[in-house]
Amino acid sequence: MRILVVEDDPMLGDALQVGLRQAGFVPDWISDGIGAEHALATTDYVAMVLDLGLPRRSGLEVLRRLRAAGGKLPVLILTARDTLEDRISGLDGGADDYLVKPFEMAELAARLRALVRRSGGSSQPSLKHGAIELDPAAHRVCFEGRPQELSAKEFALLQVFMQNSGRVLSRHQLEEQIYGWDDETGSNTIEVYIHHLRRKFGREVVRTVRGVGYLMPRETS
Ligand code: CA
Ligand 1 centroid to 70 CA: how many Å? Predict the structure, then answer.
């Protein structure tokens, strides 16, 4: 779950990156409004954490321009400006949620999970697919009722497939969701992770669509 973090305070930006990574997200951190727009134009994020007071272009302006262009990305505003007026203009500007500094990282992560869940059209906190059950909050996967050991990247990849079952995803789309700017990407690691998922959940869990990408078949029930 790739998240764009826009925050100009270096200590907070760093803490956000570390905290969100620990919560299982793949965060990219940028510290100004124009840079945020470049990142949004080139990368497919599942949500954005947006500070309001930013250099070069304000968070509110970034948000208004995103919505004016038809962007549906879930946006959580994170700011020290605890005035009613700021909260209202943020929400009216198209924000989906609002958190005032200082905040608890656990609450931010939970709110982001809820935003991503709702934007995917689901109100259920855990994802289910056949005998697989994935709990994003607890970072836990069960298969046929038994807990499974997954690496962070295997977990992230499985989650992307479960959120998009029935859709063919290209290798590039998968890489975009599980690697941030700071991650080293090898040439065939997606294939290696898929191999691991098939070993743990059965060969049919992810199908190869030759020349296009990979597919977790929609459940037929
Ligand atoms: Ca700021």
Answer: 25
